[in-house]
Design goal:
By secondary structure, the chain is α/β, with parallel strands linked by helices. It has 2 domains: 111 residues, no CATH class; 186 residues, Rossmann fold. Helix content is 53%, strand content 10%. The chain is built from 11 helices and 7 strands. The strands form 2 sheets. The protein has a 5-stranded parallel sheet with strand order 4-5-6-3-7, with helices on both faces. A two-stranded antiparallel ribbon has the order 1-2. The longest helix has 33 residues.
């Protein structure tokens, strides 16, 4: 799935808010028409109310005597009370004839004082979380569902720890990383052979960081760079911008993408841009040695990538095969 950038998500959120406003206005109009059919005397009542209110405002602005202004305001309130009485007698709720906006702050326009309303930002966040959820098993990938018992309690050669002890360290690091997340967090390189829980913990971090309100983009390297390649000559392509701009980018399964000179240059640009902007990135990969990384990419790319990352090594046996 191709990731969406903030501009696209904001456009979609504003369209949803506009749809809400249209529905609210349409329902209010339908109720008003039904009320007018049943209570013809309501016709023109709002105009009389508005005229009375305008007359009171003009009197106040012209410096008319206070008593005269008070009488004009009383007349406007009287007209409003009479209208409401007519509606209630006919079985209508007067409030139901006004649009019931979802957001009272912006009245479903999407803006307050020229700025995006919080309801739009909330929708953008919901759509971002939905996109992450659709890209990976986010609902299943939480810290609570990460089972350390699936890792053998046997020593790993050259590590001086059991697989379970090492993975407990990795788990604790990732949990603390998410709990204390800020844009000052380092980038991470989660590496190990297939089926050891790299994507699970990356998505667990994504889930928790999303809940904090950050802009998180999750995408597999294969899908991301396939999209980048397709967009090579497309000025409307936004995949690269989206990955570069995310407050937290999770690039899953690095090493599965089809490498071309163009993709290689794009990977360097992505890594370099995010390093320069000091934006954290989480890479997951089955490539566990510098030498193998350099054989696939270049020393320049690997140096820039690993130089910005904390490396977490995943060990054990393929947990996806357990219990089958």
């Amino acid at each position: 799935m191709q990731p969406m950038n903030n501009e696209e998500l904001t456009r979609r959120a504003l369209a949803l808010v506009a749809g809400r406003r249209q529905r609210a206005v349409t329902l209010a109009q339908q109720r008003t028409e039904a009320a007018l059919q049943q209570v013809p005397a309501l016709a023109g009542w709002e105009q009389r109310q508005a005229a009375a209110g305008l007359a009171a405002a003009r009197l106040a602005a012209s410096g008319a005597p206070e008593e005269q202004v008070r009488q004009a305001l009383a007349r406007a309130r009287q007209l409003e009370a009479q209208r409401e009485a007519l509606l209630r007698d006919a079985g209508f709720d007067p409030a139901g004839l006004q649009p019931a906006y979802t957001c009272g702050r912006c009245r479903d326009t999407g803006y307050v004082n020229g700025r995006l309303c919080s309801c739009v930002r909330a929708l953008v966040q919901e759509m971002r979380q939905r996109a992450v959820n659709e890209s990976g098993p986010l609902a299943l990938s939480s810290f609570d569902s990460f089972d350390l018992n699936k890792y053998p309690d046997t020593s790993v050669p050259g590590l001086g720890l059991t697989a379970r002890a090492q993975m407990e360290r990795v788990y604790r690091y990732c949990k603390d990383y998410a709990d204390q997340f800020t844009l000052e967090n380092p980038s991470l390189y989660l590496c190990g052979y297939a089926g050891l829980g790299k994507t699970h913990l990356a998505l667990a971090i994504a889930r928790q960081v999303l809940e904090k309100g950050y802009n998180v983009v999750y995408v597999s390297a294969q899908n991301a760079f396939s999209a980048v390649e397709r967009e090579h000559f497309d000025p409307e392509g936004r995949t690269m911008d989206t990955m570069q701009d995310a407050q937290l980018l999770i690039l899953d399964d690095l090493g599965t993408e089809y490498i071309t000179p163009y993709v290689s240059s794009c990977l360097y640009s992505l890594v370099n841009t995010r390093v320069c902007r000091r934006l954290p990135t989480i890479y997951t990969s089955n490539i566990v040695t510098d030498a193998d990384l350099q054989r696939r990419y270049t020393e320049k790319i690997v140096s820039r990538l690993l130089g910005s990352c904390e490396m977490l090594f995943f060990v054990g046996e393929d947990i996806r095969l357990q219990g089958k």
